[in-house]
Every structure is written in structure tokens, then in C-alpha cells.
């Protein structure tokens, strides 16, 4: 039985929409290439293997790496994928292509403005910089263009969401009794989550950081902007993850030769993410003085509940793959794993991404524990964790998904599937090395966000091996990842040279247990959005109120830090940091104390 | 060795469709169809139990050895 | 296995299996070090581990060609 091979492709049926998806992917992959380059520079620099930039430029590199990969790459891929999913699953063209083009243009302009502002940090003569890292809260201050670009980008994503809701309303008018198709369901719940999440960052940028950077207001309250950032900063990780989940739930079962095990279970998962993604952000602030322990405890409880949808996903997705394996003739308790299409880079990439996500789930549990977090806070463990989650579960799934989507979007074959397979396997191996080294280094207390984590008169003590060995591991891993990224981009570039072919279309099979097995209330977007807002209000009203009551909307005063460190005044800068920001950054101060 | 075997198989089924020596574009063909009732995901259960065991083991280590086992860090 | 040419254990499957096994073997040293406090020198461990893995790969390949002749 051939499931739909030879059918019309997406680009055959919706050429204009396919063009939008391709453009979004193009921006995503340009950002991916640049971000990967900055990644390998850091890996080699901080391990002291190869240092060809001055350490003062490290934060420019780090900011570019973070913003280009977790804002530009992931979110442009997301909007491309979601446009494909909406058009495909509603089986209708966009309502007005001009709107669709407009939001893509807005997002692109915003990204370019923000990206260029960051990169200008390399050119001292210009005097423009934005070395504020992806976590761009005060007291770090960027040039106004950084915030302005971000705001334009955000508005673009909001219009994109509205565009998809409009498609849903139009479709619903014609199909009043139908259940929302699963792919569209994922898009709609994810965008509701995004609207709620971005309230935090929009308020932080528009009311505080941008006016502050423009000089319209003298000071901001650092704890307030931090808390508003993390209001957005945790749900954004699920915003990155949902495109990967969309591919795992709707594409992976198909390429495994099976069908999704349960559509109702999938809907429950996405509703849970909508409800629980936002009221957990304070778990990034366990060590922030100024937030009462009880609020942190609530955030921890919500976070632990958030493990549930990920565990449900592990079950549903693996069961769907097992269904494929058994349909392909697989037998035995574990023997069915041998019957899977491991030669297919799309399949293998997604499976390896899922395996890494399972490991990331463990380190995430450690991060989420209020007490045990002290063990790893601000250490290299944390980047080790999120390179497993966003850096592999998300990024590798996106690359693997691209291998499957490519013919659907272009009518061209992939240049080489063996190179694709090699690429995903190299990513997996490279990440295993780098992430392992990062986790272990973190347990030894080696800090994150540091250009030169080696100090005079102080050595990190290791339980086994040595710091030098971990550094080599990290550098080799980072280099392998960079090679893998180049293989991916080159494979795609060469694929563009392939001739167009007809009959490449693929269809997605329906779920084993369909949407009709679930109650209709699951499709009630208004209800879930309302409950999500209530949960957010419960989790955030009191802590935000307390922060403002303690030190006011604009804080107790203090200097901004446009991190333009003069080479030999690092120590002075550190002094000023500890002295004037005081309470809010006490944990940073603590690290500096240890270093001295 | 293996490479030759793989491309020979592709040649028999999909070789004419691919410019490169590679797997067929669609490996999703199935032997048999399993319905929801016929399919019992016991392999999935086994994998998840293995994962859970590893998770518990590592958490116990992190909490009791790394976290409680290390002394206080007094700064200043 | 079955008569379907898509279902044979492909070199792709062997590659993926090998890399996953290699990662597990690599992590075993971390487990030994962190959990059991056994400090195995990397200079010894990694070459030995690599030799074992390559040995397994060669053995697997030999077994497979014997199997396919019989089948």
C-alpha cells in the first residue's frame, strides 16, 4: 500500500503559500548559518582552544548566537511551517495574500534591524551596540534600534497569528460541524499561548527598555524587567518546541509507516501547553532576591505539572512510531525498532531529536527544582540543558522536517539523502559531546556566559578527568555541530539545482483514534484562552504587585550597562556592577566574590 | 559491501527517481494494516519504563549525592 | 527478513545504531566518574572504547554477510 505517493505536492496546489513558506525558511536558514558560526567561535574561545576575537567581543558573539538562533531561526521556521499546516489542513488558500506577505515582511525587517544592531557591536567606530544577550533585561542596555526591531518583529508575528485565526473563522463558517483539523489545532493553541506570553515582553520593551534606551526615562526597575522578560522567556521555549511537536505528531508517524496513535490525546497535550506554559516563568528566578519564596513555589508546582504533556507526548509519539514499525513487519518487545526506516534522514533526525529531548527532560527536572537549582544556577549546566532541548529537539527536528518538506515545497528532490543522514547523525554525536561536557562542567561550578572561565589562583576541582579534557570535548562537539550545520545548508543549496519533478506529493494518514473520540470542548479556543489568562493572573498579579510596591515602576536608580568594556577596566566594571545594582544581582556579585 | 547492497535495492525499486545514490524517497510502505484494536503498544511501554528507571536513578544521584552530599558554599 | 527490499537492515540502520551505541559508551565514563567515583583516564578509555566499537561493527558486518549467504 502506498500512502499517497505520486499525489500533487503542496506547491502544486498552493503555489503562493508555498512561496511564503520557502521565503520564511530562507530567512530561518540564513540566521541558522550565521548563528552556527557564532556558536563555534564561542565553543573554541571559552575553552581557550582558539581565540581569534578579543574577549571584549565575546558578548557580541553570544548575543548574535542567541538572538539569531532562538528568535530568528526558530520563529521564522515556525511561521513557515504553521502557514503550511494551516493551508494544508484547512485545505484552503490564505484569505488575502497581501496580509500574509505583509507580516512576513514586517518580521523580516524587524529581524534585520535587530540583527544589524547586534553585529554593529563588532565595529567600535560606529558607537552602536546591543551586547545584551538573548535575555535582554536591565541593567544591560542596548541601542534603541535593537528594541525597535524586536517590536516590529513581534507585531509581525501577531499579524501572522491573526491571519491564521482568520483562516480558521472562514473555514469554520463553511464547516460549522467539523472538528478543527489537528495541525490547525496546534497552530491556534500555540498562537493563543504566544499572544499571552508576548504581553510580558511587549510591556517590558515598549514601556521600559525602549524609552530608557532613548533617554526618555532615567531608570528602570531591573527586577521588574527581568520578571517581565521571564513571563515571556519560558513560554517562548514552548513556542520553539510546538513546531517540532507538530512534526512529531503529524509527520513522523507517516514516515515511520504508521498513523498517529491518538488525536484526542494530542489535543489534550496542546491545551495543557496553552494553559501551563506562561504561569511558570518565575522558575528562572529562583535565585532572585525580591521575589517571595511562596511565589517561586507556585511556579515550581506549575512547572512540574508541565512535565505531564511532555510525558504524554513521549507515549503518543513513540506508540505511533511503534505502530509504523509493526505495520512494516516489526516484532518483539524491542525488535520492532529494527523495522524502522533509519536510512531516511527525516525519520532518523526526528527520532534522534526525540532521544535528546528525553535527556534534556532530565536536566530540565533538575533546573526546575527550587532547591536543587542552586546546584546548577548560572553554571554551564544550563546551556548544556537548552542545547539538548532547543538546540537539538527543536533544531534537529526542524532540519529533519525540512528534508521531508523540501519536495512538497519545491517539487525538487533533495540533493543527497545519505548526506542528510550523515548530517543528522553528526549533529547527534556532536551534541552528545558538547552537552555532556557542559553538564559536567556545570556541576564543577564552571560559569556560563563567560569569555574566559579560567581564574588566577583558583582551580575548579573535578570528580574525574580534568577541566582541560572537558574543554576539548566541548570544542570537538561544537566543531562537529558546525560541520553538521554546513552539511545541512550545502545539501539544501545543491538541492535547489535539482530539476523539478512531478509526482512527489505525500499525504498524511488520519489518526488511529480520530478527533471524534474526544469531547468537542477541546476545540473551544475561547474557554482555554480564558482559563490560561486566569492562571497567568493568579501566578503573576501578586509577585508583580510586590515588585512594584517594593521599589516602584522605575526602580531605586542605578546605572545602565551598555557593555562596552574597555579592555583593562573589566575589574572596574565589575566593581560598579556589584556596587550599584546590589540586591538584584546579588548572585552575580557572589560569583565575582568567588572569583576574587 | 553494505553500500552496494543498498543501492542495488534502490535500483530495483526507486533508482530511476533519484539522482544521488540514496534511500528511496518514501520508505513508508507497509506489510500489513493494524487497526486501533489490533495494536497494543507494549514496546512503547517497555521503552518508557526503561526511561523512567534511568530518570529516577539520575535524579536520586543528583539530589542525594550532588546536592545534599556537597557542603555549604559560604561566600565572603 | 521479509521479502520486502525496503525492510532489510540497511547500512543506514547500522550507522544510526552504531552512533547511538557510541554515545552510550561515551556517557558510561561519565557515569563511572560521577556516580561511582571511578576516574578512568580518558587517554586509556577512549581508544579502548573505540576499538571495542569498531570490533563490534566488523563482527556485525561479518555475521550479516554469513546470514545473507545462508538466507
Automatic annotation (TrEMBL), chain A:
Bilayer topology annotation: Multi-pass membrane protein
Cytochrome oxidase subunit I profile domain location: 25-522
Superkingdom of the organism of origin: Archaea
Membrane-crossing segments per the record: 24-44, 64-82, 103-123, 143-165, 185-209, 229-252, 264-284, 304-325, 346-366, 386-406, 418-438, 474-494, 527-549
Any one GO CC term of the record: membrane
GO molecular-function term, one example from the UniProt record: heme binding
Subcellular locations according to the entry: Membrane
Family that this chain belongs to: Belongs to the heme-copper respiratory oxidase family.
Protein name: Cytochrome c oxidase subunit I
Organism, scientific name: Halobellus salinus
TrEMBL record, chain B:
Membrane spanning stretches: 45-65
Region listing for Disordered, in residue ranges: 1-35
Keywords attached to this entry: Membrane, Transmembrane, Transmembrane helix
Stated name of the protein: Cytochrome oxidase
Organism the protein comes from: Halobellus salinus
TrEMBL record, chain C:
Keyword line: Membrane, Transmembrane, Transmembrane helix
Full protein name: CbaC protein
Organism: Halobellus salinus
Domain of life (superkingdom): Archaea
Record field: transmembrane: 12-38, 44-63
